[in-house]
Amino acid sequence: MSNLPIRIAALYQFARFDDPKTLRAPLLALCEANGVRGTLLLAREGINGTIAGSDFGVEAVLRHIRALPGCNAIEVKESRAEGLPFHRTKVRLKKEIVTMGQPDLDPLAGVGTYVAPEDWNALISDPDTIVIDTRNNYEVQIGSFEGAIDPQTTSFREFPEWFRAKRAELEAEGRSPKIAMFCTGGIRCEKSTAFARAEGVEDVFHLKGGILNYLEHVPEDESLWRGECFVFDERVSVGHGLAPGDHGLCRACRRPLDRDDMAHAHYVEGVSCPRCYPERSDEQRARYAERHRQAELARSRGEEHIGRREEPTTDG
């Protein structure tokens, strides 16, 4: 994989940006000037996103990000790809860099205890540890850790309500929770453990660097991970060693698809899958079909169908 030409960098940093709007234009211009694509989110609480491009281009953007307030020690999870996994460059303004619906929560004020991938197996194998997958249901369905609880959320906004109910359930059983949480790259765990501590739970742990860090550093024959890990780019999923997985992606609903899904009568490339078919109207599917047709025409001409240039957006 090290010989592949495209460098992919997934990153996040909780920091305190007084005016994130002023950071947007220079960051977008630098990405575009260096041919770097992907999405970066800026909020008063920090930065989050994944970018891809040449080694030179990505490094130029990372140097700029490390110079932002509080970002000098930002951790970056890197991988390689044959081609660019993103079609556009987006730098968006948000209320939160990972939307939990708790804008007053300050992850810098007190997250849980970080656990290195090499120590994670021992923690989650302890029968007194309650292991929680903080990701959404469509992510959990293709892979998770053995014994982890799936909150079955469709959005991270649902997690606080679920957590409060789960905590009440555990305390009714007379258990004092010792909780280990995990997510794809670590960002949701930063917030979910900070939330748990703000709710009065002290014995809280989370996987440093998330599932991706674990899959990179823990050998498959020692791993307690089962399945694949959904990622938010054109790779769709990865396995141990961050090798590309076997899942496809529904372009209509952005959910991962296995081989059975793609063999289903309701799967039409670019238009629908078995999960979203009953959720969409004929009119919507017609729009998706036209979008897919335009993308295929562009591809046949050796062009890219990337839509309009990104404009400033805010989280509504």
UniProtKB/TrEMBL annotation:
GO biological process, one term: tRNA modification
EC top class, as a word: oxidoreductase
Annotated region (Disordered), positions in chain: 284-316
Residues of the Rhodanese domain: 125-223
Reactions accelerated catalytically: uridine(34) in tRNA + AH2 + O2 = 5-hydroxyuridine(34) in tRNA + A + H2O
EC numbers on record: 1.14.-.-
Key word Transport present: no
Keywords in alphabetical order: Oxidoreductase, tRNA processing
Domain of life: Bacteria
Pfam families: Rhodanese (PF00581), UPF0176_N (PF17773)
InterPro entries according to UniProt: Rhodanese-like_dom, Rhodanese-like_dom_sf, TrhO, TRHO_N
CDD domains tied to this protein: RHOD_YceA
Membership in a protein family: Belongs to the TrhO family.
HAMAP family assigned to the protein according to its UniProt record, in alphabetical order: TrhO
Primary role: Catalyzes oxygen-dependent 5-hydroxyuridine (ho5U) modification at position 34 in tRNAs.
Protein name, UniProt field: tRNA uridine(34) hydroxylase
Organism encoding this protein: Qipengyuania flava
Gene, per the UniProt record: trhO
